[in-house]
């Protein structure tokens, strides 16, 4: 992210220039956003969150209000944000899956209804006398 090699990070750690936020048992170094901003000379700015919410009709006003509640100015941990993002992704995919199931069910019903209609028209073309004569 900051354009330096892993060896440079090791050197900075040993020289005291930049110590990792935490290190795993396998030796991986992790740095916080604040540390990276400091190294890159990025000064934290007041963040402004701008949200774009919309619905297609007035009947969906409740949906609009729910969208507005998603826009939140409170600070969350990175882990919380990731969990919420994953939940949203899972929700979208489950809705798509349900939609596909619903479409398959509708298609199957249409096919069955068509078969029923075709079967009735086929039966009505059969002469009942022919069935008894054979």
Structural features, described:
With 134 residues, this protein is an all-alpha fold. The chain is elongated and about 90 Å long. Helix content is 60%, strand content 3%. The protein has helices spanning 6-15, 33-39, 61-70, 78-124, 128-133; strands spanning 22-23, 29-30. Strand 1 (22-23) and strand 2 form a beta hairpin.
Please describe the structure with a list of short key phrases separated by commas or semicolons.
single chain, 134 residues, mainly alpha, two-stranded antiparallel ribbon, 5 helices, 2 strands
Record the SSE blueprint.
Elements: H1 6-15, E1 22-23, E2 29-30, H2 33-39, H3 61-70, H4 78-124, H5 128-133
Shape: elongated
Low-confidence stretches: none
Helix fraction, binned, reads 55-70%
Largest sheet: 2 strands, antiparallel
Helix-strand pattern: HEEHHHH
Question: Count of DSSP E strands?
Answer: 2
Terminal-residue CA separation? 86 Å
Q: Approximately what portion of the residues adopt beta-strand conformation?
A: under 5%
As a whole number of angstroms, the C-alpha radius of gyration is: 31 Å
Sheet with the most strands: spatial strand order:
1-2
Q: What structural category do the secondary elements indicate?
A: mainly alpha
Number of helices: 5
Oligomer: single chain
Quick check: average pLDDT?
A: 77
